[in-house]
Amino acid sequence: MPKRLVTVGDLVLDLVVDARLPLHPDQHQTVTSLQFEAGGACTTILAARRMGLDVTALGTVGDDLQGRMLVDILNEAAVDTSALVIPRESTTTTVLALTNAAQGEHVFLGNYGEGAPIDFSPAAAARLAGSDAVFIPGYTLAEARLSRLVARVFDWLAANDSRLYFDAGPFSNQLTSAQGDQVLRLSQALLLTEDEIPYIAAGEGGLDACRRLCQRYPQLTTVLKRGRAGCHIVSRHVDLACPGFAVAVMDTVGAGDAFAGAYIWADLNGYSPLECGTIANAMGAASVTKAGAGTNAPSGAEVQSLLDDHKTGIQVSC
Hints:
The protein is of the alpha/beta class. About 35% of the residues lie in helices and about 20% in strands.
């Protein structure tokens, strides 16, 4: 039976534009590619679905065109959206993603959606009770209208000793020390990049800061995402590098989000730390060979192909 994952917030619609970067005033361009795509945690959701997890999305989208597009995308992927709250006259968090495929660069211009505060509903409680794990990206904690929902989800996690995967993200620099401590006490896995370590580790950086976090929070595993170099996994009992995969890069947008979906799938299905990191690296590598993220999240078959090409000996049963 597939494992069940509940995600909280960060449901974003991207408008992805392939442009020459950097942009300069009065230097107008005609772009060759423009598309709407599911972004933010939607990429993690869709990657997890394609690896075989059952996924429920909690939070909100707007009562607008973007919100309807996102719900349609998630429903098409058989994601459970029935517990989403969509207040009247609310708007969807939307991001203009300017990408330069030739150089592998991107810039995000984002606007948080607005609407009534989202409460912790009986439907949300029921979905959490039936889950194997919860995923919360750091962006969710920065969205004001989700603060009540997030607070109650954290209370539920503390009371039920459930497995939490937290992806720090660049907005984790807005966390207070108390909020950071709460996240670290509740998380079984912390996913982050080199730049994000100081946001979580009280200003300290590098792998040693991750090691100290794992000593302070004995249940915690840190998963340091290093792009083409792969990842490094640290816990009280594990300290290992998982090499990346050399691929031709088209677009790095969403690669870290797709990585998270595959890591969660592998960890929930009992793979070793090295295997979890390698599977997640393969997902991230397969992602950057495509334009955009969201519905372009690689399939389990694409992940398996990379694992086979590099003779890892790992089989993904999805």
